[in-house]
Amino acid sequence: MRLSEPRVHPQQADQWNAKAAECMKPFVENNKADNIFKTLTNHPDLMKRWMVFANHILFKSTLPAREREILILRIGYLCKAGYEYNQHVAIARECGMSEDEIAMSRTGPDTAGISELDKLLLSATDELHADAFITDGTWKALSEHFSTEQMMDVVFTVGQYNLVSMALNSLGVQLDAHLPTIEV
Fold first, then answer.
1. pTM, entire model
2. Which has fewest Cβ within 10 Å: 14, 28, 153, 178?
3. Beta strands in 64-179 (DSSP E)
């Protein structure tokens, strides 16, 4: 974690206004009232609008869950976003990813023995992070595996989690007790 304490403190239920309580309702009902969401209750209008996009990326994307998680883990790692990375280590495990598959998000596209698709996903993420652009070679090769919609979801997934990483790092969102604690 870059910050040992929050800059923007997560609000507890007794601090939520009506808009924040409405945004938090599904998280409370599913016992997922994590620090990221409790922090966002400080700005419920932003939270409400951001959640529409975030839900598309996480739950309605055209990408298979494993491939989506490779992208998210890699950008979280590149951004040194401990909260985001560890949140998605837990999700990756739920999606059936092995510890070696999760580890390749830290070692990157030069990891020995990974598939061509995994190498391309990691390369695309590295390129977007470094230059906000996927090179022609990576785009062409990745397009052999994915449809146009999926290619768009690749870009928007990395972009979404780059944004989230910036917010989590800058706001100082602290790890929830139930998350893994892999150092990034």
1. 0.95
2. 14
3. none
What gap in Å lies between CA 28 and CA 51, rounded to an integer? Answer: 15
Three-state DSSP class for residue 10: coil
Q: Which residues contact 24 (CB under 8 A, 6 or more apart)?
A: 13, 16, 33, 37, 38, 41
Own/partner contacts of 68-73, CB < 8 Å, gap of 24 or more, are 68/153, 68/157, 69/95, 69/97, 70/101, 70/104, 70/105, 70/118, 70/121, 70/122, 70/125, 71/121, 71/124, 71/125, 71/154, 71/157, 71/158, 71/161, 72/157, 72/161, 73/102, 73/105
d(CA 88, CA 95) in angstroms, rounded, equals 10
Q: What percent of the chain has pLDDT over 70?
A: 99
Write out the two tokens for 184.
Answer: 């990034």
Structure tokens at 19: 């808009």
Q: 75 and 164 in contact (C-beta within 8 Å)?
A: no
Q: Are 174 and 1 in contact (CB under 8 A)?
A: yes
Any idea which residue has 């890699």 for tokens?
A: 74
Count of other CB atoms within 10 angstroms of residue 31:
8
Residue 29: count of CB within 10 angstroms of its CB: 9
